[in-house]
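Example record

One chain of 265 residues, shown exactly as stored in the release files.
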Amino acid sequence: MKRRHKSKPWGKKVFTRIGSATAVVLLVAAVLYHVDWSHVMGAKERLESILHTHPYFSVKEITISGYQKVGGSEIVAITGLRPGVNIWKVNPTRIEAKLNSHPWVRREVVRREFPRRVIIQIEEWEAKGIVVLEKLYYANAEGFVFKEVERGERVNLPFITGLGNEGFTLNSRQARKRIAEALTLSDLFAKSSMSVSEIRFRREGGVIAYPVSHSIPLNMGWGDWTGKVQRLKRVLVEWKGREHLLVSLDLSFRGQVVVKLSERT
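Predicted structure tokens for this chain:
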């Protein structure tokens, strides 16, 4: 016969475990009660003091990438960083906020690389056109107006005019959409080797484009830009060498181009 081993009652096991856990808790409590917290906090402060002053953590290198329009020295000046500053005192969040205040900076990332390096990554706005209102403003491909054009800055971009006629609020959803559409048309012209100097919104609706190479106003209407640019290319090929006879071209009608000729023809 197999001998059966008597097991301890279930309740006794539980109370034994609870008793052990309680003993541990009471032991930890007793230790914490007798700890001199002033010494612990003092050690923490001494450690922080060492980290914040030790020359091992002095910044020796500031690396900046992604900038073109904003100079590297200007970026460093904005951040307030300088070689020799303690890397523990560098606050990436505050530096990013400072950089974000610059009108050409779209996104920024600042990080510390211990023990002696700070890395700054910049993404700048890309201007695709100039919106003309009371002043001149740069706009990106999404139609977002991000800064005023200042003296000496680049102006060899398509001008977007006539928006004041439609009563748009700057950077409203409707205004951004219209500007983005106009800049899409401008890009299609550029890809077809027909850059435009201006795209003007008409009070009656639609836009008129003014090519750089030909002094011919192009009534583009609205929408179907790809089809209209293709038809325009065919017309210009047919009239190559006689462009001076063209007064205007109207591409606002579906599937056709209306040509207005000079009376001298």
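Notes: The longest helix spans residues 10-34.
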